[in-house]
Design brief:
This protein is an alpha/beta fold. The chain contains 15 helices and 11 strands. The radius of gyration is 22 Å and the shape is globular.
Amino acid sequence: MSSVPSRRSFLQRLATSTAFLPAAVATLAELRPALAATAGVEGRWELVRQQFPFSEEKVPINAANLCPSPRAVTEQVVAFTHDIDNDCSFNNRNKFKKLLEESRSKVAAGIGADPDEVALVRNTSEANNTINNGMQLGKGDEVVIWEQNHPTNNVAWDVRAARRGFIVKRVTLPKQPKSEQELVDAFEAALTSRTRVLSITHVSNLSGIRLPAKAIGAVAKKRGLYFHVDGAQSWGAVDVDVKDIGCDSYTASSHKWFCGPREVGLLYVKKDRIDELWPNVVAPGWGTTDETILVGARKFESLGQRDDSRLAAVGTMADMHAMLGPAAVEARMYALVQTLKKGLHDAGAKLVTPMDEKVSGGVCIVEVPQQHRADMVNALYDKHGIAGAMTGGLRLCPHLYNTMEHVERAVAGVKDLKKWLA
């Protein structure tokens, strides 16, 4: 029987595929001492950047949509995939049950959850729909959401409401909030005696506004509401502790700020809320007597055949986040995005995103007229090698694999293309 490489042997083998990097930082196993031995903040983050394979010619600065994965994750997906293709028997694939549980435990530890409260689904969209389709709601009930929620935590509620008869209320927030309390007050004012659910997006992909989730959660708890947080723009970007936030559920995607494998999503459901939610999909294995399959939130993983290689590799990315430290990653993200925002402002760009990091996350959006957005994004990519997006204007979202030089290039590029700015 073929056997999959252990993480240690895999990381050793990975060194042979990264010959252009200094030997001291060729693997994640060797990255920790290399970081400790490197002087200066930028020098240490340059070592992190070297773990990612993209070239300096085309630099990704759009973490809100899709992040590159480090070589360790990509190569592990490849290694596991080859292992399955070499022997796809049940006998060989049985080991992936243990690897899945290792990934679950590491992901859960990273967000302050119990492993039984975590389901590894396919993406944020599926996780959000599991929540809004799995709740028992009917006529007279209200669901309060933010108008800037992602469609899967926004329009999806309308689709359920049309079938079940409950009411969806949207909260509009100031474009440039003056304080966190102003944001909390707006949501509290929208609640009534009929409100059953308060569902928010932690950080908007449309404006970059970051909601004070813990304070909003305290309001929801005081009123006995179900509190859901879409964390697509916060997991892997900020230091998330779901117990501290006080949410009943939290969703995210591995392929965004977490920098993990694609087609893996996070669904956290608080232990005492799991039983009241129905699963979206019922596949073979759901409802069986095998207690090792569907304990706790695992019932939301009954999705049919999955890519075992990606589920196993999520644990490797969780290892990297744990090694770097979630608080350090958050601090780096803010250092990059705040430098970016100041540079863009000084270059004459008008920001949609608040400058104050207390009410903003890693998403940075510049005002660009609709008719010029494609021109701006394409020219920034073709002429300056900076890959952004046209969501809400010009969206630039730097992350841990970016350097200050990348930020400077982005600012210089926008300044060069300022004829298309608002």
